[in-house]
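Sample entry was shown:

___
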Amino acid sequence: MTEEVKTQPGENEQRVIVHYDTRLPKLTFLQRILIPMIGWAVWAVIRILGPTIRFEVLGGQKAGRDYRPDLPPNVYAFWHRCIISATWYFRNRNAVLMNTTNFDGQWTRRVIERLGYDTAQGSSTRGGLRGLAVMARRLEEGVDAAFTIDGPRGPKYVAKPGPVMLARRAGRPIVLFHIGLERAWTLRKTWDLMQIPKPFTRAVLMIAPLLDVLRDADRETLEEKHREMQKTLERVRDVAESWFSLTEAERERERAEWN
């Protein structure tokens, strides 16, 4: 008598399956009701506060006032902390954003799509590879792609490798930026210390020089680019967050360097 042995997927196979899984999670009845309500409420807050923000843009090319939709697309990456002000500034530019499929991601998706973005479903823990494939296809179509690089749940200020992987596959550079606010409400109990801009606040958008990743980059080069991305994001964050505590002379020196 022979015994039938049921084999289970190996660890690597399970990991691949998870990273291609973009099925929506099971939600409670209350969560399903809350998704449209939260989506409309957050959109309304951004739509009311956004027009009052006064932006100063330092560095960059296409991302600032020189933006033109006919220019080649780029990969964008920024910290989750400034997602509200960034979502407003880059609105209606036909960009595609990586968006998680969990409860928070489902109401967030409604907000960002109302602000003129497309979404690719996935995250660093589930559906990420399929999300990257969608973003790569959109880049080929001429659409920018963007990541909240430490999202969806942190750790705060720890960059994930998605933009480097996508940049290599698409042959497009990475734009790294951060937005500092003069006056904001900081959500102290959230993992990212998210900032909600106060009405009529000033904001500074710091954009680093383009980070290029070659299509034939090997694993060691990708890891090096990942470290460079982390370091650059920290730098633009530190400058932007401290901007409104600088003297005007110090700001002028920074402007000269970045522009």
Remarks:
- The chain has one domain: 27-258.
